[in-house]
Design brief:
4 helices, globular, 13% helix, 33% strand, 282 residues, alpha+beta, 20 strands, five-stranded antiparallel beta sheet, eight-stranded antiparallel beta sheet
């Protein structure tokens, strides 16, 4: 399962040029970079401030979606909450996404399922508790960062540090998958799930290719004859092939859901969307 990096057809750049020539302006114009897959996208959205290009990848016994996302400013990477409040009653990804007029949305870490960890949503610190999970944060410039060694810093200090640095989001799940463009050693034991090569499941992950340029991978699984899912080492390889410099595994399994422009693109493993406490959206 290898994916090359190549410029997506000339049409993206052509559209950008047309917008400039026609006098269209934005506060922070989008500077398009090459997308993370070869060939034409199956689903596309392009505006002056957001580009979403999605490729549905199909192999024997495996279906996954590779999403290239480019934004004009960090605030476009946002979190949505069930019932639009902390610890609201769970809702489907599509319901939360539609309420926020999201172009692209996917499940987050389902922080409401437990009471551990350092949780930040849209610049608000929800809690700072001990955790043995890995943490993914988004800094003030929109860059992804990971905290994997939870013994070095007390949770209260970590929460304060992230807030002082202007972190907009902090998710607790993992494990971390990619650092500096390379797959990292996975923990032999991880409280959330097995990291074995033969443990296949539906997966949701997010990575960063460059400043304000992200890649989201959503993998269907547990559906015989359609898609069995993939292991975490396989997910690492997909992110590396897509050019991710940082990548992180979010909640998966029955939570794995990909929403685009009013519809759910993937096939959740339970046959319908699992209700969750939060989503990530653009």
């Amino acid at each position: 399962m290898t994916i090359g990096r190549k410029v997506l057809g000339g049409w993206l750049l052509a559209v950008a040029c047309v917008m400039l020539l026609s006098g269209a302006q934005a506060a922070a114009p989008l500077a398009l970079a090459p997308v993370c897959f070869d060939g034409a996208a199956d689903h596309s959205f392009l505006s002056e401030r957001l580009s979403v290009q999605i490729k549905k990848m199909q192999q024997e016994g495996l279906v996954y979606f590779l999403c290239d996302v480019q934004v004009a400013e960090p605030s476009q990477l946002r979190a949505g909450l069930s019932q639009d409040k902390k610890y609201g009653s769970y809702e489907a990804v599509s319901d939360i996404a539609a309420r926020h007029h999201a172009v692209l949305a996917f499940n987050g870490d389902c922080y409401g399922f437990h009471r551990n960890g350092v949780i930040i949503r849209n610049g608000e610190l929800f809690r700072a508790k001990a955790s043995d999970r890995h943490l993914l944060y988004v800094d003030a410039e929109g860059n992804l960062g990971v905290v994997s060694d939870r013994k070095e810093e007390k949770p209260e200090a970590l929460g304060k540090r992230l807030m002082v640095m202007g972190a907009s989001q902090a998710w607790e799940f993992g494990p971390a998958l990619v650092r500096d463009g390379q797959a990292i050693a996975l923990p032999e034991k991880f409280s959330l799930q097995s990291t074995r090569e033969d443990k296949q499941a539906p997966r949701t992950g997010i990575g960063q290719i460059a400043p304000l340029h992200y890649v989201v991978i959503v993998v269907d699984g547990r559906q015989k004859g359609y898609s069995g899912g993939i292991s975490l080492p396989q997910l690492q390889r997909l992110f590396v092939s897509a050019g991710a410099q940082t990548a992180f595994n979010l909640d998966g399994g029955g939570s794995t859901t990909l929403y685009f422009h009013g519809e759910v693109l993937n096939q959740p493993s339970a046959g319908s969307e699992r209700r969750v406490s939060d989503i990530v959206f653009f």
